[in-house]
Amino acid sequence: MGTISVHGGDPAAAAQPGEPPEAVDGFARLSVILTGFEQYELLGTGMLMPYYDELMRIIGAREAGALLGAFSGVADGDDEAFRRVILDSPRFGPVARNVTMMWYLGTWTQLPRAWRNTFGATAYDTDHVVSAAAYREGLVWPAAGTHPMSAKQPGFGSWARPPAGAGS
Amino acid sequence: MTGDRHDGDRHDVVIVGGGFAGAAVAKTLADTGGKRILVLEAGRGTGMSAGKYASHVEAFQASLVNTPNTPYPNNPNAPQADVLDIRQILGQPAPGQPPRSVTDTSGYLVQTGPLPFQSDYTRALGGTSLHWLGTCLRMLPNDFELHRRYGQGVDWPFGYDELRPYYERAETDIIGVAASVTGQHYPGIDDQEYFGRYQYPMHEIPASYLDRVLARKLDGRNITVGGQDYPVRMSSTPAGRNSVPRNGYAPVGAPGNPQLGERCEGNTNCIPICPVQAKYSSLKTWYELMRRHPGDQPPTPARSSVTIVPQAVATKVELDEHGRVSGITYQTYDDEAVAPAPDPRTARGTIYVLAANAIENATLLLASGVANSSGMVGRHLMDHPLILTWGLMPEPVWGFRGPLSTSGLEMFRDGPFREHTSAFRIEVGNEGWNFSAGAPTSTVRAMVGRGRYGPELRRALGEVIPRQFRLGLEMEQIPEASNYVTIDRAYRDQLGGYRPVIRYDLPDYVRSGFAMAKEASDAMYALLGVPPLDPDQDRDAFPYPGDYTSYQPTDPGYVTYGEAGYTFQGAGHLAGTHRMGSSPRTSVTDPRQRTWDHDNLYLVGCGNMPTVGTSNPSLTMTALAVWAGENIAADLGGQS
């Protein structure tokens, strides 16, 4: 993984001032591990940059930088280290779970009280849907073999059979 | 549009309310030609523009909650009941205590309990047809004779056979219903007698994969409920959703965008909004009327003139010295957030029709002091109180696909048990645990909260969500004078209009229906291979198969019957508040749906229904409204 440029075809995103591409690459790599979706699938949602920006906006560059910095020290495929350094960390674990839910649902969930009191709350850290597009691109829908309710409709009568590609 | 004044004009008919019933009356009348019709709609007309309709879809998608009114913002100048406002009401006021001490005023509806009334409605052009499910069941013949046959409630002033031709017109001329006569199965019903030689305008909506799994496992089996055996059979649900047409019928697409929505496309979002408008809403009828009977042109013998005025809130029905209605006073507004400066206008016509829904019609009548010599206005408020059961199947059933419901289990819609227990129908939901437990959001949160991530999370969601299913068990509520809508000068909205004040409870007749329905659900779960979940089991580990149904005493709709508790919800089927009858002492309208008290005032909508049976009432309301339109045309003909 990691060979696809996240900025390919999206010069506007690359042109964001002061945004080192490595950080976004790191966020993409982290997202792959958290979601279980391949990087090309995540890029295909068009939500990588919006979610990166949303994370920056909500927890700030210091916390986001610390998370991605800690993550960059975890070797690819080292699940034990990922759990220990990221998921079990009181600082990074809650954020990582929120990023996971953001990808799956398109919504941000307010961080736990203990996290907010220790690492700093922002006014943006509220329960909210990132955008209507984020809802439509939620990963839970393809994971469940379906389409987002109200969008990407599969067509008349499609519901009479299991979804295309269903194993059973 | 709102700046236009219509108080100088004289109309043949003035209709209050731009929803289901108003549209059916207006179309029936307009198609007779030569009529001047004015429609006053309290809410906005946003949905009539194809582009602006899409804003409702985006508003839904960008919202954290999914309720029937999520796409339709509240409008303080025409406020609406909303399920998010429902609270548990702790008790009835004690004697001598002011009612305010326990009354819940947090929403638009003022709820005095003891139970909360849990249904909502939408105030915008299109009304609650904007967010209905689309179910188009007819009532059963025995539903019209509940008192004569079972000693409960009251009888209708006419029977099924008399309403049947209007059902056909509602199905074909107004809504556009997809169904087959042979795919529906009701207790004691002979297809030939019930439908005659009839075909719906469109073929039935295909059954969902879940429906097919249930049919394979349940059809032909018997379950024992209350000591009686009942044969189980899945029944295709008639739907106001576009499907493959029969006999040259042309499915009606989205207003202003007719190529969109000619078929149901499986958005799995009938409630709260069909993005492609393959599901009927009265916007389609209003759009047709605006094109065929334009309000800016005078009527001709072949053409009527229909003027729709949104943002016009009816505030009073005015009477002349002879007790006839002389006008409808209304107030317009530019900005929903701001109360307008008082500038009352009066709409005048020959005949007046209130089509504002069972609660708004009742409050308007009470506020005006009209049509209530019987004292029945506002009384007999009914709904279809429903409980849900939900579980995980042994195999994937692939929910969250297709329209929200395509089939039901109808064997409890009639039977001798109606002497003591509510009849009910069982709706099969195609949306997993969305309605019952907030899935898929709740499922993702539970799994991530337990530390799942990566491929394991993806795989677990793919294993659990496609196994989710639910049943909706919907009771017939009988009419009781003690369930009512009233008004109180202490409770007003921003415009100064009366807010509905509601007293609501469920009798044992309905509660025993919950118990019977839950017993039926348990018996079917056993046939499906879905066992009760061990109470000590960690539910968030999602062991399957299992019955995950859970009713908590903290739920707003928690009720008990015997030892057991149930959480009921509203079905959005408000009815009964100005019922029809054959006596002016016990009913508000005569069988022609004209008020007994005022010979130029008609009431339409579910408020006219003396009882509600077990069918979702929109189709019956539409059939009745077509009939009312015919009666009004006859009255006008007699006068000209």
Average pLDDT of chain B: 95
- What's the Cα radius of gyration of chain A? 17 Å
Helix content of chain A: 40-55%
For the largest beta-sheet of chain A, the strand count, sense and barrel status come to: 2 strands, antiparallel
β-strand number of chain B: 20
Per DSSP, the total helix count of chain A is 9
Low-confidence stretches of chain B: none
The main sheet of chain B comes to: 7 strands, mixed
Widest β-sheet, arrangement of strands of chain A: 1-2
Average pLDDT figure of chain A: 89
Q: Judging from the principal axes of the Cα atoms, what is the shape of chain B?
A: globular
- Beta fraction of the residues of chain B? 15-25%
Helical stretch tally of chain B: 13
Q: Unreliable stretches of chain A, pLDDT < 50, 5 or more residues?
A: 1-15
The number of strands of chain A is 2
N→C terminal distance of chain B: 30 Å
Large-scale geometry of chain A: globular
How would you describe the oligomerization state of the chains in this entry? heterodimer
Name the chain pair whose interface involves the most residues. Answer: A-B, 46 and 56 residues
Helix content of chain B: 10-25%
